Amino acid sequence: LDTELNVVTSSCSSPVYQETRAIVSGMWVCGAESTDVVDLTDVSTISSSDTAIVTVSDNIVSGVDVGSCTLSIPTGSSVSMSVTSASVSATSMFAAVINYISIERSFSASSVDYIGSTQLRAEAGQSLTAEGDVAHVFSYVVFSDDSVMHVSDDTVLSSFDTDYVQPVSGDAQAVELVEGALSIQSQFLVEAWWTLCGEPVIVGRPWLNISMPGVSSVEVSSDVDSIVPLGDSLSFQPVNYADLATLEVVLYFDDGSSRDMSLDGRTVFACDEADVILSSNTVSTTTTSNAVLQVVVSFGEMTPLQGTINIAVDAMESLTLTSQAIPECSATACSGKTTISQYWSSSGSYYQQLELSAVATSVLGSEFSFSLNNKVDVTISDRDVVNIANGDSSSCVSSSSSSSCTITDGALATNSLIGIGAGSTEVSVVWNDEVAFLDILVSDSQITVTSLSISAISKSSGEFYLKGEELTEEALELTMSFSDGTKLSNIVAGEEENDMLPPFSSFLSFSSSDTSAVDVGSDGVMVLNGNSFGYTAADIAAVSKEDAGVLDTISVFGNLAPECNDVDIGNAKGGPFSFDVSSSDDSFSVDIWINTCTAALTGFQIQIYFDATVVEAVNGGATASDDWPYTITYTYGSPSSMVQLISSVPASTEKGTLLLTTLKFIRLGDGETTFSGSIVEALGTNGVVIASDTSVVAGFGGVAFGLRARRLLGHVARANRPGSLQERQPRGLACSDVSCGCGGKLLRGDINGDCKFTIGDLDFLKRYYTNPTDDGLTWYDSTYQLAEMDPDLNDLIDGIDILFILYALAKKYRFLSAAESTSYTDSSCSLVLNVTLIDDTGAYVTDASTTTVTADVAGLVDFDTSQLTFDTNGLNHVFDLALVDRSFVLVLPQISADSDVEVAFMVATYEDSGESDAQRKFPWWGSDYGDYDADFDFAPFYSVSVPSTCPFGSTTSTTSVLTTTTTTTTMTTTMTTTTTTTTTTTTSTTSSTTMVPTTTVETATTTLSTTSSKTTTMLTIPWFAVSSGTGVFGSQTTVFNPSTSSFVSTVDLSSINQRQKFSYDFSVEGLYTQGESNLKTTSNNKHSTVWLVVMTTT
């Protein structure tokens, strides 16, 4: 930094002071460590204490007026500056020409530590090696005080030696190598003048090193290999043979670079042949002789190298007229055909056709075939023999009453000639004074079909199929050979007239082996009527009417595509139900599709039906699809002949034909099954119903496994195929929503109030849960609808309710009828629990094989265990409830408790197979028993008060006597057969205990002391044996208590660890093991009763 700036001697009217460049240097310090001193100018802000003395722009410090000031940076570092009136003069000037800068670094950026230093090396230079290279001049002035100042902005370039360099427009400090510049090293090619106030002060002459590479080779090429003379017939349309060649010239240099010299002024073209025209880089000729033109290319003083190229001269020699049988024909007999015959036909007369074209041949042997367009005049000598095939003879105009005509509008460029009647005619053409002739014969002799084949239609994995909506049509394509050797290829049925051919129906007949799937008309057009059954395709046959031995057959599967808002089942291509069954495990896949057309799909509830004795749906075997990237809830085994698919995504925008999922099935054996389905409901945006209560159409079909007999779906009357679902509510009712009570058919879960329980209710709940003020929600009865949003009855609308509704729709959860369910202590100190459940259809649950209820009871101190089986859950007792009529019932006799008894109960559902899973289990409201322990804590649904007068063994309990009025008993076992009448005493008239398999059934009609009547079924077992635990029981015993109708054995457990878990197996002699009990001993009870229940009351 020059801290003293002086006045520069100049002719300016005001003082011009020197400038200097400020540099900020420093180091980074971290504790005791520091870096080397580095340049910090670019990250520093330099300011002047007095801008009237010195100004700072970027890091350039300029004097303004005489005086002193301080330069400083924000860290506090500063330097004093002074501007004086002392004069300094420019003593020399240095100018450098630069067009590249290279930077070298000796480090990797990723290896620099937090503290340390490194160095960069920059090199500036010039490389002027090609015409058009540009470089910039950088200028510096040295003053009499030995200071140096950068003056490029005030430098003017002049005195260019234009043999080498020239100025660059718009860039005052740049020079450019001129075209044709040679290599040179000199400082006299340009001058750099430093000027002040418009006057030159001092000049610098930069050194230039121009190093032009030498020319290494020349390449000359042409856009054509040959030309014809100007005006030659071949140069006219439609041949358009080139009569002008355009040359391209490229120079290659020693440094690997190249330059296009085609239009360069230094390029010279020459040819010694006469009648050659050279214009710029083009070549043409007027000679008609067979010649080769050699063009020599040179470059004057630029290089002594030359290039040459040879161009052949061609010319018109002859014109011929050719014919070809059409439509498209590749047979040998079709080419050059001049005889037109008549097709055999059962009705009408149809002649063959010819396509004419002209062929121009050149002197060098090239042939150019072209159509007879409007550049060609065509004359037909007898238009009663042949004429234009399009049926419009207006183009064939006769100049007199003769039968000849001349075509000048190019009609034969797009049309053929067709036979009109027997005879011969001459066709002549004139093109650019060139003439050609062709003789044509028309014969009445008929040609017949000798072979035919049906061309491939849509095909997948070797299977032909017709895909589309019902009544979709697809024309057959036929290829036929005829007795004259000609051939018609890929003729589309129904388009014969367009091709001026006889209709297929006039010489062919068509048939289908399965018209219920794919039919075919007499015109050869197939019609899709339905899905093909299994692996049986429809055989479509085409037969010659003239010779029945000429035929072809193709097997075609019918494959219905879903119309808008329909569901498709099975393969999208090939046979819809020709499943690929695995040889290893008999499994196969079934795709499920839906077509929503333009509507977005936001939810669906679809049921797929099949014969469960033939195929089995594999629970958990479904494969997701990218078309529907959302969760689908599957229901298997309810019943086993159905799989239900449920999904609800209100924000979905998926639309069109979507693959929803792929189900996995297993073939169980030989047999046949239909596949069908029902769209319970499908929803669009904002819950709009796009399909409801409809059976699938495209997805209806079936398959037979291992059966030789062929079955067709066609025998199923179309009217009897699945149409509409069994109605979920009576039709014709004036009331169609919950505001008027749905005609007395209110359904649990009907959240959207439409008198149905469907996926629409789940959609409504989700949208309400997300936005309770959603304007798209319709409220018929808000009180009712909000109540149905809380199916778990805990007065909260939350994610559990959403899950409950989903699983209820999936037939996995049951609704609780709270009004019909009770828990109380009766006057005989019995705890009574009644649980009434309702399924997704609104029906009471009456099947104990698919639904069970288990009670988890807390707070019991004691109860009569003589007739009950139970498990323990900590201090709680767990009981299974028995299904009586339409309620699940538990009666605990003679209970005692220190406080209220709390009851939670768990509802589990099962597939037909007896399988269950976590999605099929729900605790009201919570239990940590068994499988529920992982997700729930004990949370009672009922809290029951127990009178203090109810200790265990209370003598105040009421006893009812069953008096048998009519008894008919037949008991049959493997040991004895007998008849008996029994009077039984019981402590409850409303309960039912756990059932065991029946070996003997006694039915009695009884009258209670309370005057009520009921039917009692009593199960008796004649022999009880202990098959294990003999260390406790001394021997096998039969202990039957007629008062309780149970087998009881009491044992002293004092010799057993009272905290040890033990078990006994019970068996009926001669039968299989009936059950097992697992009982825990307690510290305050030295005895345990091992029992088996034998009576139920219904």
Task: Please identify the oligomeric state.
Answer: single chain
Low-confidence stretches: 708-732, 952-1098
Radius of gyration: 52 Å
End-to-end span in angstroms?
A: 113 Å
Strand content: over 45%
How many alpha or pi helices? 3
Structural class: mainly beta
Which of globular, elongated, flat, extended, rod-shaped describes the shape? flat
| Overall helicity | under 10%
Q: Describe the biggest sheet?
A: 7 strands, antiparallel
Mean pLDDT across every amino acid position:
83
Count of extended strands: 90
Characterize the structure shown.
The protein is mainly beta. Helix 1 packs antiparallel against helix 3 (799-809). The longest helix has 12 residues, at 759-770. The model is unreliable at 708-732 and 952-1098 (pLDDT under 50).
Summary tags:
single chain, 1098 residues, mainly beta, 7-stranded antiparallel beta sheet, 6-stranded antiparallel beta sheet, 3 helices, 90 strands, 3% helix, 45% strand, flat
How do the helices and strands line up, and which of them pair or pack?
Elements (H helix, E strand, L loop, with lengths): L3 E5 L10 E3 L3 E2 L2 E2 L2 E2 L3 E2 L7 E2 L5 E4 L2 E4 L3 E6 L5 E11 L1 E9 L1 E6 L14 E6 L8 E10 L4 E3 L4 E4 L6 E4 L2 E7 L6 E3 L4 E6 L2 E6 L3 E3 L4 E8 L3 E2 L17 E9 L4 E3 L7 E3 L5 E4 L2 E4 L5 E8 L8 E7 L2 E11 L12 E5 L9 E10 L4 E4 L6 E4 L5 E3 L16 E3 L9 E3 L3 E9 L2 E14 L1 E6 L4 E2 L2 E6 L4 E3 L1 E6 L4 E6 L15 E5 L5 E3 L4 E4 L9 E7 L6 E10 L5 E4 L17 E14 L2 E7 L5 E3 L5 E2 L8 E4 L5 E7 L6 E13 L3 E13 L5 E7 L5 E5 L53 H12 L11 H7 L10 H11 L5 E2 L5 E4 L5 E5 L1 E2 L12 E12 L8 E3 L2 E5 L1 E3 L2 E6 L3 E14 L11 E6 L12 E2 L1 E3 ...
Parallel strand pairs: 1-11, 25-32, 34-42, 45-53
Antiparallel strand pairs: 2-9, 3-6, 4-5, 7-10, 8-9, 10-11, 12-15, 13-14, 15-16, 15-19, 17-21, 18-19, 20-23, 21-22, 24-26, 26-27, 26-30, 28-31, 29-30, 31-32, 33-35, 35-36, 35-40, 37-39, 37-41, 38-40, 41-42, 43-47, 44-45, 46-51, 47-48, 49-52, 50-51, 52-53, 54-55, 55-61, 56-60, 56-62, 57-61, 58-61, ...
Helix pairs in contact: 1-3
